What we know:
The chain has 349 residues and is mainly alpha-helical. It folds into three domains: 3-56, Herpes Virus-1, CATH 3.30.40; 62-122, no CATH class; 190-348, no CATH class. Helix content is 56%, strand content 3%. The strands form two sheets. It has a two-stranded antiparallel ribbon with strand order 1-2. Strands 3-4 form a two-stranded antiparallel sheet. Strand 1 and strand 2 form a beta hairpin. 23% of the residues are buried. Mean pLDDT is 79; it is low at 121-141.
Amino acid sequence: MSQRYEDLPCPGCGEPLAAGEDIVTCPDCGAPQHRACWKHGEHCALSERHGKDFVWLPPETEEKAKVSAESEERLQSHINRWEEQAESEPDPDSPHFFCPNCGRKNKRGNLQCESCGYLFFAPNPKYPAVPGTQHVWIAGQNDPMYVSPEQDLGGANAGDLVLFIQRNARIYLHRFKRITEGFRRLFFNWAAFIFRGYWFLYRKMYGVAGLFFLASIGLFAFTAWQFYNHYDAQEILKLLPDRLEYIREEMSAFRLGSTFWQTVANVIKPYLPLIFGELALGTVAGFIADRVYYKKATQTVGTLRGANNDEADFQFATLREGGVVLFRSGAALVLMTVLRELIELVFAR
């Protein structure tokens, strides 16, 4: 008997195959078994499974193949879901299509739903086909910003975090690595400084985004109250077009004298609380953004990894929880503009 069959269970009697025993292998499927078991049934113990390209595998290998096949099947189901939606599209030449998850309209060619974040593709376990992540591992270790996909970053490995971060993953992985290593220098995120709550909303940190929006609305309300109660609002608004035109002409001619600066001061003085308040909010957002995002990403990925034993389910859940949402940020901008207009109308009465 070949040593590679030793201690493997006989498919006929279940007893392990021992050295020196009379063993035969099935010519159809290749399963090793006791000759006595073959003679007892007058055929291979696995004859009922013959056909459909069945080939015997050792139990451990067969179990691994079964798990792999199930994972592949789950991934394929995600692909099929998208393909079925594409086939049911009434007008394949239309520049838009509808998300199979939430039903919202999307531009054809989008990889992710602009509304709910549903992924219109199945992820590749090694190199996820997610916007902004394809090049993360390509540069290699010579790249000063390289992070190994197996490196642990606060309880989640870099390969998993790429699925969550998606856009600009290479930049954020590098920052996460520095945070994990205890780098004490403060990071500053210029995108968060400029966009404040919209940046947090864009990265799906809804609670933090809400706090910044509330603070911004509060600043605007205070500035509007002060403007209409402590200044001659009608006179200021009446003179504003002429003052702005004067400032433009003086700047064009590079005549930046005392009168110019006095006019600038008169224009911005009523809005100073809002200007300095928004600058303060932006500064806070710029300093906390990366560390808040690091905590959010590592905790979410760790939770999803523990809750999903199947790799395909984990990848799909991570892709949906992470990424960015441009549509909601745009909707928030419209909502904030409307709220400011309503607040100004209230105080202008």
